[in-house]
Design a protein that fits this description.
about 80 residues; YefM-like fold; three-stranded mixed sheet; about 15% strand
Length: about 80
């Protein structure tokens, strides 16, 4: 894991993030001895990103189903 001083990290923050992305994490040390680890956040897929179902339905059948449901809702 690459280690940066606080001053190096501040001056080269963009490249520090690039190194963290490539290597998984970097460490930043302060003069007083405290150390911090910077690592990329795990990407979470959107809950709305769902796989489509391969159905063999024609467009006319979908339109007919939508019209039928609308007609039932108007009564």
């Amino acid at each position: 894991m690459r280690v940066y001083t606080f001053s190096e990290a501040r001056q080269n923050f963009a490249s520090l993030l690039d190194v963290a992305q490539k290597d998984g994490a970097v460490r930043v040390k302060r003069r007083d001895g405290r150390a911090f680890t910077i690592q990329p956040a795990k990407e979470r897929p959107s809950p709305l990103a769902v796989k489509s179902a391969a159905l063999k339905i024609r467009r006319s059948e979908i339109v007919a189903a939508v019209r039928e449901s609308r007609e039932r809702g108007e009564s």
